[in-house]
């Protein structure tokens, strides 16, 4: 699945990085970011949980 992060609405709560630390991190501004190598997609099942955990729904998942 392909992951998209809308950094315009991300508030930097860090729930994605806590839920799926193998997929997400936080950048220098505290906003959600994908770990290197995850830009083209991932099959990590925790990515779905991270999208659900986002309090502002800044994470979108698309099946590839």
TrEMBL record:
The record's annotation in PROSITE patterns points to:
4FE4S_FER_2
Start and end residues of each 4Fe-4S ferredoxin-type domain: 1-29
Task: Report keywords, A-Z.
Answer: 3Fe-4S, Electron transport, Iron, Iron-sulfur, Metal-binding, Transport
* Residues passing through the membrane, by range: none
Q: Which residues form a coiled coil?
A: none
Its function, per the record, reads: Ferredoxins are iron-sulfur proteins that transfer electrons in a wide variety of metabolic reactions.
Q: Tell me what this protein is called.
A: Ferredoxin
Reply yes or no: does the keyword Iron-sulfur apply. Answer: yes
List the cofactors: [3Fe-4S] cluster
